[in-house]
Amino acid sequence: MKIIACIKRVPATDAQAKIDASATSLDTSSLQYMTSFYDEIAVEEAVKTKESLGGEVTVLTLGPSAASKEVRECIAKGADAGVILIDDDWQSRDCRSTAKALAEKIGELGADLVFCGKVATDRDNAAVGPMLATYLGWSCVTDACELELDGTTGTAKRATEAGLESVSFSLPAVITCDKGLNEPRYAGLKGIMAAKKKPLDEAAPLAAESHAKVVSLENPA
């Protein structure tokens, strides 16, 4: 089974946000970055699925070449390979453009299952996962907090205002992951050393047009 874990490089949660001179984005000169919190859950679920059903896990991201840091951290936790769609202006892409570029690469990789975080901790749009499933024409389950897979079908539970909702689906599928699905593991020294030597695949992303853009940014009152 070919499994993809999509991750996003985001500013660290303790970052002090400052608006740049253009008033349309953040000043990134002093920002530290990390893997989005829910994407870490997605990576863990991908690795757990590999361990139970077999296969291989590829970590896929769209962003700058510096995102190799986050990709290697995921490889150190059990993923097998990493792919970076190089785009230094990745933060200006809208959800549609990002999803379309990721979908094209996932199609090339011949994946059977994709895990994403339920939402990125910088933009909070929660849109790329469902859009990705739409472009791929796959099943989609969002906000999964419990999951069982048998290789061709699966069942998932997701928290709703009315309680836990159970969903059955067939593969291929895109699953967006919520808290409670698992507890992400720490990378061991052996995994860290191996990840440093792992070659990463870098490629140009699909030049999909963004239909939405930020026109102004201001601090809250």
Structure, explained:
Strand 7 (139-149) and strand 8 (153-160) form a beta hairpin. The strands form two sheets. A nine-stranded mixed sheet has the order 9-8-7-10-6-1-4-5-11, with helices on both faces. Strands 2-3 form a two-stranded antiparallel ribbon. The chain is built from five helices and eleven strands. With 221 residues, it is an alpha/beta fold. Helix 2 packs across helix 5 (189-197) and helix 3 packs across helix 4 (128-136). The N and C termini lie far apart (50 Å).
Fold topology:
Elements (H helix, E strand, L loop, with lengths): L1 E5 L2 E3 L21 E3 L1 H17 L2 E8 L4 H9 L4 E6 L8 H15 L3 E5 L10 H9 L2 E11 L3 E8 L2 E8 L2 E5 L11 H9 L3 E3 L18
Parallel strand pairs: 1-4, 1-6, 4-5, 5-11, 6-10, 7-10
Antiparallel strand pairs: 2-3, 7-8, 8-9
Helix pairs in contact: 2-5, 3-4
